[in-house]
Each structure stands twice: as C-alpha cells, then as structure tokens.
Design brief:
With about 250 residues, the protein is an alpha/beta fold. The chain has 2 domains: about 1-140 and about 210-250, Rossmann fold; about 145-205, S-adenosyl-L-methionine-dependent methyltransferases. About 25% of the residues lie in helices and about 40% in strands. It contains 7 helices and 11 strands. The strands form 2 sheets. It has a 7-stranded mixed beta sheet with strand order 3-2-1-4-5-11-10, sandwiched between helices. The protein has a 4-stranded antiparallel beta sheet with strand order 6-7-8-9. It is globular and about 55 Å long. The N and C termini lie far apart (about 35 Å). The mean pLDDT is about 95. Bound molecules: S-adenosylmethionine (SAM). S-adenosylmethionine binds near residues 67 and 91. S-adenosylmethionine binds near residues 4, 70, 89 and 106.
C-alpha cells in the first residue's frame, strides 16, 4: 500500500481535512480520567500524531505499526522520551507491560479481513490492558458501504504539502457484503512539483463492520462494551454514519 510507504511523508497532510484529532485526544483524556501517569498503546499508529500530542499532555506512549516508512516519519516528527515507536504487527505483538488504554484509530483495524485476525488482535489487546483498562477503536461502518456499493474514481482532495501539490482520486467497489463486508478502494495520487508530475496508483482491501458484529467480537473476547458513537465527539451511533467509535473495557 503506497500510502504507507512511498507516500508516508504526505499521509497525514492528505487525510488531515477529514479528521478531528482534538476530539480524539479529548476523548482519550476523558476515558483515562484523573490518572496522573496514564499509559497508552496505539495499534497501527501511522505517523504518530495522536501520540505526539498525548506525550505533551503527560501520557507515556507506545505506538506500533507494520510500516517502517510510517514509523520513520513518526519518529522524526514526534521526538519525546515519553514515546516509543516499534515496528510490530498488531496480529502478533507482545508486551512486557500493560497499558491504561489501547487505541486503534482511523481505520487501522479495517485491514483485518478475517474473523480469526479480528479475534487475535482483540485477544492481544486484552492481554496488553491493565485490569479495568479501556480500548478505543475506530472502524468503518458497514451499513453505508453496503448501501452505496460502488463509486467511480473521482477527485476527493487537493492539498499543498511543502513544494508539492497532491491530488487524490478515489473509487471503490464492494467485494462482499455478507457474511463480511469487504471493500476494494482504489486511489490515484498525482504529485506535482514544479513542472514534474508523478502518478501513483494504490489499492486497499478493507473490512467494514456493523453494530452486531462489533458487539459479538467485543463480547467473545471478554470485554464489556461501554459505548458506540458516530465520531469521537460522541455523537450517538447512527446506521448512516461512516465510522463507528467503539469504547470497551477489560473488567
Ligand atoms: C489509516 S492508517 C491510520 C494511522 C493512525 N492510526 C492515524 O490515526 O492516522 C493505518 C495504519 O495501520 C497500519 N497497519 C495496517 N495493518 C497493520 C497491522 N497488521 N499491524 C500494524 N499496523 C498495521 C498501516 O501501516 C498504517 O500506518
């Protein structure tokens, strides 16, 4: 996936307009409450923006990601003795310490296509949490994806990053809607600098989840579900919302 390799330096700038990082941070802070020394593990941490900001608010942070290129940018942009970035797969990570909160944000979880992989990551999460610890995961909602089913390639964003103009085009097609909702998302990036322009084509195969699937996965892996929301500002869950924010705890 070129977005996490060749395009890693631009990843956050490309996605930034569609996000509310401050709301994510407030929610993480609310969930960890008055803990004076909170610890966080971020699965699929990407270029580390959440952890960079949380470290400056007193969190001790560990971020794992499978992409060396994303981690290289994360390490350069977020230099703090309170953060460790590690190259690990969330399917097989192991820890010698337990955390107050485990997060998996902005769709990193959607790359887990099979039920067995979802269970593995939730089991690893369970083991990585302190008793009473919380998890906050953000996944794609299957309902709108099934409804829309496909979209032709069209321009979805244009950004300026340093001396580059980057246009992103996107199209998608539903591959299966049951028992799992799997989508193939195709992207074209046009990266222009002066009179030079590069075209990069990218393809991501991702899973979206519905409310019932989430409830089942959370319960099957020994967690208690605390809430499902449309976004990290905690607007109530709706079948039409693109994302589901899931808050669950290890009791
Ligand atoms: C859409 S980005 C999200 C990054 C970050 N959480 C954020 O909020 O910007 C998805 C990230 O998940 C990582 N990823 C995908 N599958 C993974 C896996 N099995 N283990 C660890 N990281 C993974 C990718 O390398 C990528 O950095």
């Amino acid at each position: 996936m070129k977005l996490y390799h060749e395009l890693a330096e631009y990843y956050f700038a490309i996605e930034e307009a569609h996000r509310n990082i401050q709301a994510d941070l407030s929610l993480i802070r609310t969930i960890t409450g008055a803990n004076p020394d909170p610890t966080i593990l971020d699965l699929g941490c990407g270029t580390g923006e959440h952890l960079g900001m949380l470290a400056s608010r007193g969190f001790r942070c560990t971020g794992i990601d499978s992409s060396e290129d994303m981690l290289a940018i994360a390490g350069k942009r977020n230099q703090s003795p309170s953060i460790s970035f590690l190259r690990q797969d969330m399917l097989s990570f192991d820890y010698y310490e337990q955390f107050d909160i485990v997060t998996c944000l902005f769709g990193s979880f959607d790359y887990l296509l099979d039920d067995a992989d979802v269970d593995k990551v939730l089991w690893n999460t369970w083991r990585a949490l302190k008793p009473g610890g919380a998890a906050l995961f953000e996944v794609w909602n299957a309902n709108p994806v099934r409804e829309i089913s496909s979209k032709p390639m069209s321009t979805v964003s244009m950004i300026r990053y340093k001396d580059r103009n980057i246009e992103r085009r996107r199209g998608f097609a539903l591959l299966t809607s049951a028992p799992r909702t799997i989508v193939e998302v195709r992207y074209v990036y046009l990266v222009a600098c002066g009179d030079r322009s590069d075209t990069l084509r990218d393809k991501h195969v991702m899973r979206a989840f519905d409310r019932k699937e989430i409830e089942r996965f959370v319960a099957d892996n020994g967690f208690a579900l605390k809430g499902m929301y449309s976004n990290s500002a905690l607007d109530p869950y709706k079948d039409t919302s693109n994302k589901i924010i899931v808050h669950f705890v290890k009791e």
